[in-house]
Specification:
single chain, mainly beta, Jelly Rolls, seven-stranded antiparallel β-sheet, 2 helices, 15 strands, 45% strand
């Protein structure tokens, strides 16, 4: 098992289309990850942000096993009106950084914010880059099998754990089963892990563990 306290940037971490720095928030020392202003103000949705490779890469080789982290996120006042404090985990990031999978949270869609339908069913999301962003998944599968509602909110520590096998991905949030993906949209492979953030969000990460079962 690999453990990173995230009180500072891990050795070898690479900020890919994000900024990253140590910070204090929510009573903890953590790593803050955010899109740079150049992407936020001048980027193009679907090309520079919105389910794109925007993450702090943690060097490791992960294929199956578990990944867990504490996430605290809020709006940074720089995003679009539909920003939801997006933050989560990416995994199986290939060396070219042009293929990976991700599960992320939308805390402003959490039930603690009392969002209107259908946002109340969209607090956690799976996607597979580059072919299956959230909007294609939502259009193709209107039953919502790749997202779900959660009793979460912004500006609070949220424990996110992913259990990844060759054929499934199960997300647990604050110890409660939140989302099970039985048809992942990418072939199993090995790659790095990333701390994922998207438009309009300042995200903080603490206590990362990666267990490959080896």
């Amino acid at each position: 098992m690999i453990t990173h306290a995230l009180t500072d940037l891990p050795d070898g971490a690479v900020a890919h289309r994000v900024t990253a720095r140590p910070a204090d928030v929510g009573g903890r020392r953590a790593v803050a990850v955010e899109l740079p202003d150049e992407i936020t103000r001048h980027g193009r949705p679907g090309i520079d942000y919105v389910d794109q490779p925007t993450f702090l890469i943690i060097p490791t080789t992960f294929s199956t096993g578990t990944i867990a982290v504490d996430v605290w996120s809020r709006l940074n006042g720089k995003g679009m009106p539909d920003s939801r404090a997006f933050a989560g985990l990416a995994y199986r990031i290939n060396d070219r950084r042009d293929a990976f999978e991700s599960v992320y949270l939308r805390p402003l869609n959490g039930l603690r914010c009392d969002p209107p339908p259908p946002r109340d069913r969209r607090a956690i999301q799976y996607f597979a880059y580059p072919d299956w962003p959230f909007d294609r998944l939502r259009d193709t599968y209107p039953d919502g099998r790749y997202e779900a509602g959660l009793a979460i909110g912004p500006e609070e520590w949220i424990y996110l754990e992913l259990a990844v096998t060759a054929t499934t991905v199960t997300a647990t949030v604050n110890g409660v089963a939140a989302l099970t993906i039985e048809q992942p949209k990418a072939q199993p492979r090995a790659g790095a892990v990333g701390l994922f953030v998207d438009i309009g969000t300042e995200a903080f990460f603490s206590h990362l563990t990666i267990d490959t079962g080896s």
